Amino acid sequence: MKILVLNGPNINMLGIREPGIYGKSSFADLLALLEETAKAEGLEIEQYQSNHEGDLVDKIQQAYGKVDGIVINPAAYTHTSVAILDALKAVSIPAVEVHISNVDAREAFRQISYPGMACVHTIKGQGLDGYRQAILWLRDHLSR
Ligand code: CA2
After folding, report:
1. How much is the pTM?
2. Is the shortest distance between the CB of 24 and ligand 1 below 6 Å?
3. Most ligand 1 atoms within 8 A of CB, residue of 6, 11, 17, 53 to mutate
4. Which terminus, N or C, of the chain has the lesser number of Cβ atoms within 10 Å?
5. Can you give the pLDDT at residue 17?
6. Which domain holds residue 80?
């Protein structure tokens, strides 16, 4: 089973500022968690982070026919990107949305998720462990 983990803008800056919201772990810690999860669960996990909306759209399109499931944290594009929503709909690959913070308890502008409208599940407020939870949820969903 192949899972693509996508991260949007500034996720590569994790741990550098705002530890009260996003925790103290770094992007390198997230990459290590993904590798550990892949090994422990016998999954093929590819990860990609970009600060550019079109790059994320390209990566979703390129996943068509090659990837079984997508875990995506669109970061700030969560609240603005109809392009990422449309790309997820276009490829129709089961996708789980992850947010490190509990976006429900934050500013009003973070209450809408466009990509989330094309996702089969969302995990919020679980810190980096949310990625592991999303991968396991997706694996179970795809095995059903
Ligand atoms: O909680 C999440 O995972 C978010 O997707 C993270 C985004 C934010 O725009 C979303 O509303 C919720 C932010 C990504 C990381 O931003 C940083 C900001 C300061 C320091 C380090 C990273």
Report:
1. 0.98
2. no
3. 11
4. C
5. 83
6. 2-143
